[in-house]
Amino acid sequence: MRPYFFTLMVFTALSPVCASSVWAKDIPVESTIRAATVYNDRASITRSVKVEIPAGAHNLVFTGLPVSLFADSLRTEGRARANVTFGALTHKRESHEDYVVPKEKELNAQLVVLQDQNRLYQVEKKALRAGQGFLENIGKQAVLRTNEDIAEIELNPQEWAAAADSLSAKMLENMKGSLTLDIKVREVNNKIRKIKNELRGLRTGQKQTYSVTIPFESDKDTTLNIDLSYQLPGVSWQPIYDARLDVKSGRLELVQYGSVWQRTGEDWTDIALTLSTAQPSRGTSLPDLHPNWIAIIQHAKRMKSRGGGNNFSSISANVTGAAAPMAAMEMDMAYMDESVLEEKMERAVSFQAAQINTEGFVGEYKITGPATVKADGTHSKLLVGSFETETWKQVQIKPQYSTDAYLVIKTKLKGDAPILPGQVNLFRDGAFIGKTYLPMLRPNDVEELAFGIDDSVRVKRNMLKNERSVVGMITKESVIERHFVTEIQNLHKEPIDIAVLETVPVSRDKRLRVEILKNKTTQGYEADLHDVKGVTRWKQILQPQEKSKVMLGWKVIWPKGENVSGL
Fold first, then answer.
1. Cα 539 from Cα 448, distance rounded (Å)
2. Does residue 71 sit in the same domain as residue 192?
3. C-alpha distances in angstroms, 191 versus 102, 116, 196, 201?
4. Residue 512 domain-assigned?
5. Judgement on whether residues 470 and 541 belong to the same structural domain of the protein
6. What is the DSSP letter of 368?
7. Terminal Cα-to-Cα distance of the chain (whole angstroms)
8. Residue closest to 253 by CA, chosen among 429, 439, 456
9. I need a surface site. Which of 215, 236, 384, 532 has the fewest CB within 10 A?
10. In what order do the strands lie in the sheet with 513-516?
11. Are 211 and 31 in contact (CB under 8 A)?
12. Does the CA dihedral 9-10-15-16 come out positive or negative?
């Protein structure tokens, strides 16, 4: 006994590290998602847990993490009222017999139960059909026996009536049972269809997970708050807006939302959510430059024999034996257009992320309050905030397309934050009227939003002249001359800002000349509006019940005998 005690004491004294490693244990932790930062093609997830840890060297083990996470993005942080040191984080994949996503596992289990139940109903129906067939055969045999030798049978009306009633009652019972089973099968099939639809939106097919081990040393027992962060794909977001107009006051409320969806296999419930415009997938550096080799491509139509002018088919025809088809194929492939080859190449299917053109702006939007995003791809519309704008109303008329006047709100963005490009839902006096799209807007940029027809502005358009002629004594030229008038009346009870927009023909050929007729055109117009050739605008303010006319006259001249398109 004494030598054994001495040996143990020496081992303990000389090997304190080994002794502590012998007693080190794995501490499993159950974490929940606390926060997420969503980018256009991925998300950064933070899981948090509070765990009681003992003194010494031990391991914290996170299990059941998504297999799709980017392992290189794993990192950890901790807080404790003791001296705690983390070691090198390690991770590994673990395989499972069943699905690892709880909701998917639950739905599959329900599906199996319903399918088994359906099979039982089918067996019962088969048994009822067999019994029904047996009863029908009994009835047929009784009729045959009666017909064969009716004279020898002593008919007892009461017995036959009782037998017939019994047979009929049993057959009726079987029929009702079969009908009841049909109803149950239909109900089960509806449930199966519903579960399959849910699975289609949720299905990950994941039977693997990641486990992460974090070694640590602590100088005493303590409570450790630990965060584990990682990035994973299958997540995206895009900005959408509500533009709500009060027509009477002209006030426009512009509210931004983030439409977030994810298919990570795990619901995000009551988390701190941040939407980021950063795009991590764009990379960190420029690609290397390589030589840009060029070459002349010999097309098939140039490949002719100098002697007889033979084409490819005649050349391949001269190739004898089994090599002829192969030779022709090789020559055809050698001179095939590269674009044809590219069209025939198969391409991998990828996750479609939202495209957000931020024009260099990188920012983050913290969603107010806890947010919930389901893992089935359902879009969650989360409030980001509202924008301060300066707005004024304008009625725009494009008479060559329509005699309807449209209410347009011109919006000037104020403040410091830009507006990201995205879909806009338009509301006029509380009623949803349609959708449009906003480009990237920076502070002090002005954008126009159309809010439908303004019935309080009356518009009429007439063509006063549409004449074609030939002019010139020596050099003949063709001429088309057209005059238009647009009559406008303001039926509002307040003054309105009117803009009339028309296009005049634009020539790309020096032989085609376009002239605006000053004496037939209302002056004060803007030509080539917003640098768009031919677009002309007149602006004016109409008082209540006031009428106005906008005149436009132009002519186009070109050499006689030439044909002109676009008129």
1. 15
2. no
3. 19, 13, 9, 16
4. yes
5. yes
6. S
7. 116
8. 429
9. 532
10. 457-471, 477-490, 547-559, 513-516
11. no
12. positive
Residue stretches of the chain with pLDDT short of 70: 1-23, 96-101, 135, 139-161, 163-165, 167, 201-205, 283, 299-361
How many independent structural domains does the chain possess? Answer: 4
Tell me the CATH number at 507: 2.60.40
Q: Are 375 and 265 in contact (CB under 8 A)?
A: yes
The contacts of residue 88 (CB under 8 Å, 6+ apart) are: 215
Same domain, 260 and 364: yes
Query: Is the same domain home to 407 and 387?
Result: yes
Please give the full DSSP string across 125-170, using - where no structure is assigned.
HHHHHHHHHHHHHHHHHHHHHHHH-TTTS---HHHHHHHHHHHHHH
For residue 279, what are its two tokens?
């795009």
Report CA-CA distances (Å) from 300 to 55, 316, 324, 327, 471: 80, 13, 18, 15, 51
Residue 344's SS3 state is helix
> What gap in Å lies between CA 286 and CA 555, rounded to an integer?
54
Looking at the fold, whether 48 and 114 belong to one and the same domain comes out as no
Q: Which are the contacts of 186, defined by CB distance < 8 A and separation ≥ 6? A: none
78-109 tens-digit pLDDT: 999 999 999 999 999 888 666 666 777 777 78
pLDDT tens readout for residues 275-295: 998 878 776 777 888 888 888
Phi, psi of 319 (to 5 degrees): -80, 125
Q: Rounded distance, CA 326 to CA 330, Å?
A: 6
User: Among candidates 467, 453, 353, which has minimal Cα distance to 398?
Assistant: 453
Residue 120 lies in a domain: yes
Tell me: do 106 and 196 sit in the same domain: yes
Amino acid at position 529, single letter: L
Per the structure block, which two tokens stand in for 44? 């950064």
Q: Of 31, 11, 88, 32, give the one whose Cα is nearest residue 57.
A: 88
Contact 412, 290 (CB under 8 A): no
| Number of C-beta neighbours around residue 448 at 10 A | 12
Alpha-carbon span 478 to 487, nearest angstrom: 30
The answer to whether position 189 is within a domain reads yes
What b/e readout covers 299-328, taking b as 16+ CB neighbours within 10 angstroms? eeeeeeeeeeeeeeeebbeeeeeeeeeebb
* Burial of 34 (C-beta count, 10 Å sphere; 0-12/13-18/19+): middle
Cα distance between residue 267 and residue 201, in whole Å: 13
b vs e for 108-140, b when ≥16 Cβ sit within 10 Å of the residue's Cβ? bebbeebeebeeebeebbeebeebbeebeeeee
> CB burial class (10 A; 0-12, 13-18, 19+) of residue 181?
middle
Residue 549 forms part of a structural domain: yes
Pair (374, 447) in one structural domain: yes
Whole domain around residue 403: which residue ranges?
A: 236-280+355-453
Is 538 found in the same domain as 420?
A: no
